[in-house]
Each structure stands twice: as structure tokens, then as C-alpha cells.
């Protein structure tokens, strides 16, 4: 198996890095906001906007990482109730449903971002364009589809390797 370079590993984990930076910023800004509001009696008027952006980017960008690491929510109990051959069919159907939902979300989010670009809408306090904030959604859904595809390919490879190993032990 080929060893990945540090640059490739860093690039592959960029979603986790971005989400981590946003989480760190959210924690620090919230802490500073509490201090400024209750100790200094000078609240940040823009804090709620930035907290919203951070939460949005954390949720959507880290979802791609969840797909890549197979840590997304799944109800495996239902699939495991069926015989093994039917389980494979159900897993294919689930993959198709996931692609349809992500594709629909991607298309709708592109339209959503385009609407914000056309309207030129921006936030009240800092006047940041909403298209930059909600741009996380199409980026994240594209990452989810890519990572889900990679995950499925890895699963198929491992299934193939197990079948080859079983054939070798049977001979």
C-alpha cells in the first residue's frame, strides 16, 4: 500500500481543519462575548452573526468528514435483520437514496446562494454577503458526495479482499 505524503494528508483533512478553526473561533468569541457583556458591560453587537456563521460552517463542513470516516448516523440494526444477500441490495438502495438527497441539496443550495448573490443581501451588523456564509452548503454537499463515493469504493475493495481471502482458505 502506498504511503500518503503529509501534504496529501493535510489536504484530505482540510474539512476537519476548517471546522476545527471555526469551533475554536466560536468558543473564544463566545467566551469573550460573555466577559464583555457581563463584566465590562460593553457587549459585542456583532457576536451573534459570527456565532451563526461558525456554527453553520462547523456543521456542514464536518459532515463531509463524517462521510469520509464512516461516522455518519446510520441505522444498521434494520439492515442486519435481513439475510446477507438482501443486505447488499438494501445497502445499494441506501447509497442511491443518499446520492439523490445530497444531489437535491446541492442543486437547491446552489440556487439559494445564487439568489443571495443576485439580491446582494448581507448581514445587518457586519454587512458580510450571505452568499459567503451559506456558500458552505454547496461546498459541504459536494464534499459529502466525494467522501461518500470514496468510502463506498473502500468498502467494495474490502469486501472483494475478504472474498478473495475466503476463496484462498477454501482451496
Automatic annotation (TrEMBL):
The chain crosses the membrane at residues 7-38, 50-68, 89-112, 132-153. Signal peptide: none annotated. The keyword 4Fe-4S does not apply. GO terms for biological process: C4-dicarboxylate transport. GO terms for molecular function: transmembrane transporter activity. The keyword Transmembrane applies. It comes from the Bacteria. It holds the Pfam family DctQ. Residues 26-156 form the Tripartite ATP-independent periplasmic transporters DctQ component domain. GO terms for cellular component: plasma membrane. It is found in: Cell inner membrane. It is a multi-pass membrane protein. Keywords: Cell inner membrane, Cell membrane, Membrane, Transmembrane, Transmembrane helix, Transport. Belongs to the TRAP transporter small permease family. This is TRAP-type C4-dicarboxylate transport system permease small subunit. It comes from Natranaerovirga hydrolytica. The lineage of its organism: Bacteria, Bacillati, Bacillota, Clostridia, Lachnospirales.
Amino acid at each position: 500500500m502506498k504511503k500518503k505524503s503529509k501534504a496529501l494528508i493535510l489536504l484530505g483533512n482540510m474539512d476537519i481543519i476548517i471546522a476545527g478553526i471555526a469551533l475554536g473561533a466560536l468558543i473564544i468569541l463566545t467566551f469573550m462575548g460573555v466577559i464583555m457583556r457581563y463584566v465590562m458591560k460593553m457587549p459585542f453587537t456583532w457576536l451573534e452573526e459570527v456565532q451563526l456563521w461558525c456554527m453553520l460552517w462547523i456543521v456542514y463542513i464536518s459532515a463531509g468528514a463524517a462521510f469520509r470516516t464512516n461516522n455518519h448516523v446510520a441505522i444498521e440494526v434494520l439492515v442486519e435483520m435481513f439475510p446477507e444477500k438482501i443486505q447488499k441490495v438494501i445497502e445499494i438502495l441506501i447509497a442511491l437514496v443518499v446520492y439523490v438527497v445530497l444531489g437535491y441539496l446541492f442543486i437547491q443550495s446552489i440556487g439559494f446562494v445564487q439568489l443571495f448573490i443576485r439580491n446582494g443581501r448581507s448581514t445587518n451588523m457586519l454587512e458580510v454577503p450571505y452568499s459567503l456564509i451559506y456558500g458552505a452548503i454547496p461546498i459541504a454537499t459536494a464534499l459529502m458526495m466525494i467522501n461518500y463515493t470514496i468510502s463506498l469504493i473502500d468498502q467494495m475493495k474490502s469486501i472483494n479482499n475478504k472474498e478473495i481471502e475466503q476463496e484462498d482458505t477454501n482451496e
